[in-house]
């Protein structure tokens, strides 16, 4: 009896260690591709084009495509939105905004959905949607032009609301470069070493 319990616990430890090792390798792969922003988004674009090509060639899975489009739209809106909504933080109509003068404090734009999580969610959702196209049970017959018109109207309404929110609270979802401070400009030359003058010699 004790031998059976010890063998079961040993097999569970092996399984948990295997899954832990796979998780660590997967996380290392994600950490390795994090700096390559352009390459990551090119891969996401290629995967999305592959999914759309399958839908176009096979003439089906329009419900899956519509659900994927709505999910990507929600991700994009979260990517453009600030982490803290100015409408909730400030009660006045003017609201906060990024600095417009040189002497104002630099406040970088912090997204509600960071860029890496945005890309990761797009990759996962597109991969699952592509996987669904291999099963006929997800191919629900539907009149696809209605879905296209509804998605376009929803996209326009959502983006219009987001743009109005940007103008009202005076923020941009992109921060270019680093803050510049007034003062001496950096000429790019190394600083000269200051040598103190020698004291006068006696005699």
Describe the model.
It contains six helices and no strands. The chain is mainly α and 203 residues long. The longest helix has 32 residues, at 2-33. The model is unreliable at 92-97 and 181-189 (pLDDT under 50).
Total DSSP E strands: 0
Question: How would you classify the quaternary structure?
Answer: single chain
Compute the separation of the termini in Å.
102 Å
Quick one: biggest sheet? Answer: none
The helix count comes to 6
Using only CA atoms, what is the Rg?
28 Å
Overall 3D shape: flat
Spans of 5+ residues with little confidence (pLDDT < 50)?
Answer: 92-97, 181-189
Structural class by secondary-structure content: mainly alpha
Helix and strand sequence: HHHHHH
| Helical proportion, percent range | 55-70%
Percent of residues in beta strands: under 5%
Mean pLDDT across residues = 79
Describe this structure in a few short sentences.
With 203 residues, the chain is mainly alpha-helical. It has helices at 2-33, 37-58, 62-80, 86-89, 115-132, 144-169.
Topology (elements, then pairings):
Elements: H1 2-33, H2 37-58, H3 62-80, H4 86-89, H5 115-132, H6 144-169
Features of this protein?
single chain; 203 residues; mainly alpha; 6 helices; flat
